[in-house]
Amino acid sequence: MTPLTAIRRCRRHAAGLALGAMLVPAVFAPLALAADKKKDPDEIGNRDVGKGVNFYSIEKEIALGKQMAQEVERQARIVDDPIVAEYVNRVGQNLVRNSDAKVPFTIKVIDSDEINAFALPGGFFFVNTGILLNADNEAEMAGVMAHEIAHVAARHGTRQATRGELVNYGSIPLIFLGGWTGYAIRQSMGLAIPMGFLTFSRGFESEADMLGLEYMYKAGYDPTSFVDFFEKVQSQEKRKPGTMSKVFSSHPPTDDRIKAAQKNIQELLKAKPEYVVTTSEFADVKTRVLGMHNRKVADTSKDANSGRPTLRRNPNGTIDANGDEKAPQTDSEDRPTLKRRD
Fold first, then answer.
1. Triad 197, 151, 48: Cα angle to 5°
2. Residue 80 region, left (φ>0) first, then alpha (ψ -120 to 50), else beta?
3. Pick from 198, 203, 260, 191: nearest CA to 227
4. Which is nearest to 253 in space by CA: 230, 274, 273?
5. Which residues contact 207 (CB under 8 A, 6 or more apart)?
6. If we measure between CA atoms, which residue out of 146, 158, 172 comes closest to residue 226?
7. pTM of the model
8. Closest CA to 116 of 251, 257, 296, 216
9. Torsion angle of alpha carbons 112, 247, 215, 60, nearest 10°?
10. How far is residue 236 from each of residues 99, 241, 260, measured CA to CA in Å?
11. Which residues, other chains included, contact 42 with Cβ-Cβ below 8 Å and sequence gap of 6+?
12. Which of 14, 85, 159, 219 could make an SS bond with 98 (beta carbons 3.0 to 4.6 A apart)?
């Protein structure tokens, strides 16, 4: 190789490095921009937070969620009180309008004292009455709901399931053919739902925390209420283990999550002059749910006692030394005995 050839090669190599240096930022710039948009509540609705490897189209995701929601409704007790159902649905739909969700939501209330809410793929959302009973205000309830809406908006359920399928590729035909027999199904809340659609990685949970805070903030709620509810549930779980449902406790409100939420509130959300904390309607509906709960407890107690035998003591009978009832005395036995004096 002549010195001139070597110089030319060095120049071409340097030019290539320079071009690469220009291309790398160009390739990663959109990714960085997308990441920044996730942290900007003003961009809600104009960003694709559900982007990622996913074997499911939106249509298949909705169909899958509908199938699982039907299973939930077959096994759970859905609240049919129109006032409670309409109120929870209205609060949820307001949060959906202020989110990145690209699917319509169907929101129903489950009659259960467990502190839990869960959203299935495709926008099928269930809220336990335990959330209403344990929330002190509407903003706390909205915070829990916003977190679950974030899971759907970011398509965490099907993305998480896709990750599992990449590990176990043989399960994919079962998914697309709709044949869940033989698929790894675990029980949660007594509902037969594949846990891959309800339990998420730490990264997905953190993202749902952040997005949920943004959604409730945009809807006008005080975002600190989300932290307040987390701290309350954490305290209750420490005092009485088992307060949280199995799904909720799989990713409990740990100190790290609480601190991360507080940091996101300070760094991402500009303070507003006023927030919605609660409404009189929340108080009325909570009272109504509490009444339903008390009636259920009373009915349960009544049913528990209905199987016991009813004993009625014979007023003419007597009890012997062994605790057995003696036959009642006849009239002749009951008459006084007269004896003539000498």
1. 120
2. alpha
3. 260
4. 230
5. 38, 49, 150, 154, 156
6. 146
7. 0.70
8. 251
9. -100
10. 30, 8, 21
11. none
12. 219
Q: What is the pLDDT along the chain (342 residues), one digit of tens a residue?
A: 554 444 445 445 444 444 444 444 444 444 455 567 889 999 999 999 999 999 999 999 999 999 999 999 999 999 999 999 999 999 999 999 999 999 999 999 999 988 889 899 999 999 999 999 999 999 999 999 999 999 999 999 899 888 877 655 444 343 333 333 333 333 334 444 555 555 577 888 889 999 999 999 999 999 999 999 988 888 877 787 766 655 455 455 678 888 999 999 999 999 999 999 999 999 999 999 999 988 877 766 555 555 566 555 555 555 555 655 555 555 555 555 555 665
Q: Are 122 and 152 in contact (CB under 8 A)?
A: yes
Task: Return d(Cα 139, Cα 145) in angstroms, integer.
Answer: 10
Structural contact between residues 155 and 101, judged by C-beta atoms closer than 8 angstroms: no
Q: How many residues does the chain have?
A: 342
Ramachandran bin of 164, using left for φ above 0, alpha for ψ from -120 to 50, beta for the remaining angles: alpha
Place of tokens 């509490």: 290
Q: Are 143 and 225 in contact (CB under 8 A)?
A: yes
Q: E strands within 38-115? A: 106-110
**Residue 162: partners with Cβ closer than 8 Å, 6 or more residues away:** 53, 54, 55, 56
Q: Which amino acid is at 205?
A: E
